[in-house]
């Protein structure tokens, strides 16, 4: 818990995030009065570390302009608003404007109409409110992944978002968390032809997992043991949408298609054709599985696992 508490953003940092959101909203609304700016990603889903950059999504109904044109116009608006280090990255897979706010000291990325990410953010934040063990579990797993260099998608490992989904799946398997998408929907929105519906009245689910008394440390060991020894990498897709593992055959994720390898399959809860593990390749799948096994063994056998578990990964001479 002390490691978790050291990673959580302070009240002052959260206040600065809200201050920057308000400042940018005022600037942008002068040009586009009907637009809305949303915090999304780890800074808004309650799983963000202290001192992380923040992600914003501009929701705008501007049919006369392409997304690239909006990004360029947005960069111009921000230049006029006394913001620093402004870069319009129009050729990125998701075009963004990067900036730094001299008043709060925060760096920020703004994308346009990436509303599925906003809905995903809400889903994860709602799950975090059901059982108080999810947040520290996910923070510790993310901290471990960063220490062990298995949290970079461009290197064939997994994103922080994927690790949070894996934690939710594990707690669903232990009946500590429900499956919100299998319950009668109280929240319903369609984004880019994806139907996003689930039960979001999570205050009514307090105590759902109370029958399981497992501590954070035991759940952490169980998480790594599951991914080291219990998960069927050949046949299974984890799906928090259904609250269980589903078959790779059902999704036709049994073979490589383009750059998608499907060696560890993690279904996005709303964009269900999207495998969050698709970047994992033949080399990195073994590195991941070895790290899961190492973590499980440390938590089972080491008398002082808090030191060993987070020891920085040092590449072997063969890797360098």
TrEMBL record:
SUPFAM superfamilies: Nucleotidyltransferase, PAP/OAS1 substrate-binding domain. One of its GO terms (cellular component) is cytoplasm. It comes from Oryza glaberrima. Its EC number is 2.7.7.52. This is RNA uridylyltransferase. Keywords: Cytoplasm, Magnesium, Metal-binding, Transferase. One of its GO terms (biological process) is RNA 3'-end processing. GO terms for molecular function: metal ion binding; RNA uridylyltransferase activity. Its main location: cytoplasm.
